[in-house]
């Protein structure tokens, strides 16, 4: 509940974009979204600001995980 929907959506958008740009292997997509969901604390959607903040944090974390996958391949 809470901001988890925004976190999932943001991470998914970043992962799909990287995959479509051929900079992320298909098999890494799900694990990165799972890591983002598992490592960001989801809070109540008390304001639009909390949703935007969760979205931004999820996008940044997804990009970090994607960068780590790129450096290992």
Can you put this structure into words, describing what you see?
The protein has 3 helices and no strands. By secondary structure, it is mostly helical. It has one domain (4-72): Rna Polymerase Sigma Factor, Chain: A (Orthogonal Bundle), CATH 1.10.1740. Helix 1 (4-20) runs antiparallel to helix 2 (29-39), helix 1 (4-20) packs parallel to helix 3 (48-72) and helix 2 packs across helix 3 (48-72). The termini are far apart.
Helices, strands, pairings?
Elements: H1 4-20, H2 29-39, H3 48-72
Short note summarizing the structure:
The protein is mainly alpha-helical and 73 residues long. It is built from 3 helices and no strands. The protein is 73% helix and 0% strand.
H/E element sequence = HHH
Q: What CATH architecture would you give?
A: Orthogonal Bundle
User: Mind describing the biggest β-sheet?
Assistant: none
Class in CATH?
A: Mainly Alpha
Summarize this structure as a short list of keywords or feature phrases.
73 residues; mainly alpha; 0% strand
